[in-house]
Amino acid sequence: xxxxxxxxxxxxxxxxxxxxxxxxxxxxxxxxxxxxxxxxxxxxxxxxxxxxxxxxxxxxxxxxxxxxxxxxxxxxxxxxxxxxxxxxxxxxxxxxxxxxxxxxxxxxxxxxxxxxxxxxxxxxxxxxxxxxxxxxxxxxxxxxxxxxxxxxxxxxxxxxxxxxxxxxxxxxxxxxxxxxxxxxxxxxxxxxxxxxxxxxxxxxxxxxxxxxxxxxxxxxxxxxxxxxxxxxxxxxxxxxxxxxxxxxxxxxxxxxxxxxxxxxxxxxxxxxxxxxxxxxxxxxxxxxxxxxxxxxxxxxxxxxxxxxxxxxxxxxxxxxxxxxxxxxxxxxxxxxxxxxxxxxxxxxxxxxxxxxxxxxxxxxxxxxxxxxxxxxxxxxxxxxxxxxxxxxxxxxxxxxxxxxxxxxxxxxxxxxxxxxxxxxxxxxxxxxxxxxxxxxxxxxxxxxxxxxxxxxxxxxxxxxxxxx
Length: 468
What we know:
With 468 residues, the protein is mainly alpha-helical. 57% of the residues lie in helices and 10% in strands.
């Protein structure tokens, strides 16, 4: 290749010195045919090994030579694409056990690959648009690969309605990207370690990868769910950065319908803050309740609402709130979504006194012991007391008897089981009077526990609707 390159330069110099301008082109074509065209198979056979070995200087020379031949670069583009796909997938497979469970490591791995391939294109091919396009096409294949990172999504409402389980495999990348954004935007130990600038930089990295995701709707669905939880639980690390993210999503061309709903969600929160200020000025129980009036079109994930028998202490607020709202907005109807609500209750036992952050369903279950703290209550009686549907009651009870972050659970039950589906109507539950927060091996007499976990945004049935 060096010989061919040198001879071509020499002949071009001689042509400019001795030939008429019209003859220089003919001379150049003749030299290219003899020095490059006649040896094309030999040259191209070396392309893939050079890419594999990252021999950027020799690739530069090959690119310079083959670009003189009509269609000569096309095989190089194919070799680059194949290399990126094979090397990218091999790298992801090698770290599959870690990255499929850790969204941070997954995103970092993808970004590391992208930078590696981008450096190759820059150093070997001078960021030629044809090679950048080949890089993008191949990296998109890596991002959307379904061999290891996949989830199952129902394909149609009709199939679901007929009870036919049809699913289309999808890359898990959109879900992991949304999880990573949630880690950055929610108050977490991870986000607290980062500066505002670092968080913004990492969010921009997500947007870079997102460009290559085929099913952007999946990312937006997960991102919207995470945002809903952050807004309802007031767990955002930086509200300004939250709104910035919405605009960035709009700028990179995410589905407009989703982005508009996200913007509407922030408007609802701001309006709700004003309503709360007005409501508190008119009630004696100033800080006991925080209402969020949410537009169903922007927030609702499923049409189904869950019936639950609320504790009287909570039930009393409903007519007061409704009356207040009707005075402000006559003609509008409020619908209460209790499965999206939460609160803080105080719990006292033999060990101490604790503040518990709970869902409304958890609150309804725990208040069943308010007047009988030492009694054992059967599953059937809890169902009658709370009026919760069976799937929701089982899930709620399991969160109170097997909360993963607690060494001492809030409720105790018998007989022992390993799955909430195994609860029977005769399973007995009772309050753990020895419940305590354990720190450094010692029970604490006071403290706060968040039992909300991952706030349930929809019922078991409407979760299937959400996946449409």
